[in-house]
Design goal:
Blueprint: E1 3-8, E2 15-16, H1 18-31, H2 39-45, H3 50-62, H4 68-85, E3 91-92, H5 96-105, E4 109-113, H6 118-127, E5 136-138, H7 140-143, H8 150-160, E6 162-171, H9 174-183, E7 187-190, E8 206-208, H10 216-226
Parallel strand pairs: 1-4, 1-6, 4-5, 6-7, 7-8
Antiparallel strand pairs: 2-3
Helix pairs in contact: 1-4, 2-3, 3-4, 8-9
The structure holds 2-phosphoglycolic acid (PGA) and magnesium ion (MG).
EC number: 3.1.3.18
Enzyme class: hydrolase
Function: Specifically catalyzes the dephosphorylation of 2-phosphoglycolate. Is involved in the dissimilation of the intracellular 2-phosphoglycolate formed during the DNA repair of 3'-phosphoglycolate ends, a major class of DNA lesions induced by oxidative stress.
Length: 228
């Protein structure tokens, strides 16, 4: 029988990447002749990867569509800047390493399902010394699909060798919650990540404010409730 699995979102869930993403976004906006944005605005733009973040920041200022060529150019600038800065000031959230230890010791697989490019995600996770923990790390280019498409999550579980009927997603945004719900997988929302509205409004299975709350008992209950 395949193993139970905890699948983490990356930005705003596993790692606090906001300072670095915001730096790279602002560097990109300035290169595009736009104004810099603050942390509050950033939280409205993030969640569906760098390309979408740039597009959202652009249209918020220009009230017109970003032309494809300029979009590509700005995205390249963003990727270069972000890649060169990894890991920057990014840090795993308090308690997340201990939580991963708990689940790994209990026989769970761990994986990452992110809308950050897989190349950036693996680079960041490696630079933080966390690579060995994950049976799979997937981004939007891994399968050519991205959250909220539920297949991004179910394919990640398959790639990790996990069991979709004994899986829990942990995320910080409406994107993660919608993805997990569409896949029929319970979802734990952290309330310290990047979202413009409180995560409870998107009705996840449960909301936590610290990883100490993510216990084996909680995961077990969520899995049992989902299989009824
Ligand atoms: O960087 C983003 O826009 C989203 O990344 P996440 O899926 O890991 O939250
Ligand atoms: Mg996130």
């Amino acid at each position: 029988m395949s193993k139970p699995i905890i699948v983490f979102d990356l930005d705003g869930t596993l790692v606090d990447t906001a300072p670095d993403l915001l730096d790279s976004l602002n560097h990109t906006l300035v290169a595009g002749g736009l104004s810099q944005v603050d942390d509050t605005a950033f939280r409205r733009f993030v969640g569906q990867g760098g390309r979408v973040m740039i597009e959202r920041a652009y249209t918020a200022q220009r009230k017109q569509q970003l032309a494809a060529l300029e979009h590509d150019r700005l995205h390249d600038i963003f990727l270069d800047h972000y890649t060169l800065n990894i890991p920057g000031r990014s840090q795993p959230y308090p308690g997340v390493i201990a939580a991963m230890d708990r689940f790994a010791s209990a026989g769970y697989l761990l994986a990452v399902c992110t809308n950050k490019y897989e190349t950036l995600a693996t680079g960041l996770i490696r630079s933080l010394g966390l690579s060995e923990r994950f049976a799979a790390i997937t981004g939007p280019e891994t399968f050519g699909i991205r959250k909220p498409d539920p297949r991004h999550l179910t394919e990640t579980i398959a790639k990790a060798g996990g069991d979709v009927t004994r899986a829990v997603m942990v995320g910080d945004s409406v994107t993660d919650i919608d993805t997990a719900k569409a896949a029929g997988i319970p979802v734990v929302a952290v309330d310290f990540g990047y979202t413009d509205r409180h995560v409870s409004e998107y009705e996840p299975s449960v909301v936590i404010s610290h990883y100490d709350e993510l216990t084996l008992g909680m995961a077990q209950k969520l899995i049992e409730a989902a299989s009824r």
